Transcriptional regulator
Amino acid sequence: MPGPKGLDPLLQSAEGGTSDRFLKKGLRLGHLRLILALERTGHLSRAAELLATSQPAASRLLTEMEQITGVKLAERQGRGMTLTLYGERLAARARLVLRELDEADRELENLKSGLAGSVSVGAVTGAAVEYVLPAIRQTRVTHPLVNVSVEVNTSDVLTAALDDGRIDFFIGRVPAALDPRSYEARFLDHEPLRVIVRAEHPLTRLSGVTLQDCVPYDWVLQPDGAMLRVAVEAYMRNKGIPYPTKVLNTSSILLTLMVISQTNAITVVARPVADFFTLGGEGGGRIASLDIAGDVPIQPYSLIKLASRKLAPVAQNFHDLILSRASVLE
DNA sequence: TTAGCACTGTAAGCACTCTC
DNA sequence: GAGAGTGCTTACAGTGCTAA
């Protein structure tokens, strides 16, 4: 809990705070290394040798340490030294401190190299299935210390998240209203669309079904302004197809699936999503994909990050992993 | 550039143990 | 018990870093 001035208690300079007192009096890592070397060798000269320093320098370190702690740390004997109870306890603590520093060193190295850390990515639904999930699977194997957070949403929401720094990058499209120079986009894929309905839907029994045939039914679509919805609206307008009057707006793929599996509503999704819930049997045989809307022109999606922000190594690794999958799928 | 400071090494002295 | 060997402490000087 933060202290009265909002500082972490460990960082506060408290009168009588022991570690702080030691540090203020000049306790250094060299002191801690010496007490450990002394514990191991039982001789100041050998301890000095172990630390690659001279014996007088080691002697001075020990004296300083005793002045700092205010207790006798080693019993001088005719041949060598033995640690007192205080010395043994300090050595035990020194071992923990140095081990923690080793751990910190390893952790920072991992962060620098991208072997560990956290990455937050965003994706439109189709890209999440096609690119993010495989990348996560591979990362679990090759970089088990990396935590991945995924936000699946529409491109406009993801762009705002990117601008706010809530995600490192996303797969989607930069809304036309924004300055594209602010973003660095790498083309990934086209996103053909499919209409999906429940398996027993009347449309599944028709041959040569078209988008026009879908109009009388309830629709479940992404919210106003979402890329996919804008593309569908523009396509229908251009083809002279009347726009459906009964539309449920949601960006939730779960709610969308529940509605279409229990009613005669239809929805338009990216083909990977349709494939996932139909070909793979994930829809439990309750979802069917209609081969319509495949020619709806929709802007291809890209891997997008802020042009002004350099990715952390762990995020850069994940970014490159997704790019490498794109080249495999080409 | 320079003064001050911290750190380190060398040399000398002291204490203790071992061996004869 | 005395001399030799080992180990620790102290004084002093050199070196490198930092701040003015």
Remarks:
- The domain at 9-112 of chain A is CATH 1.10.10.10 (Arc Repressor Mutant, subunit A).
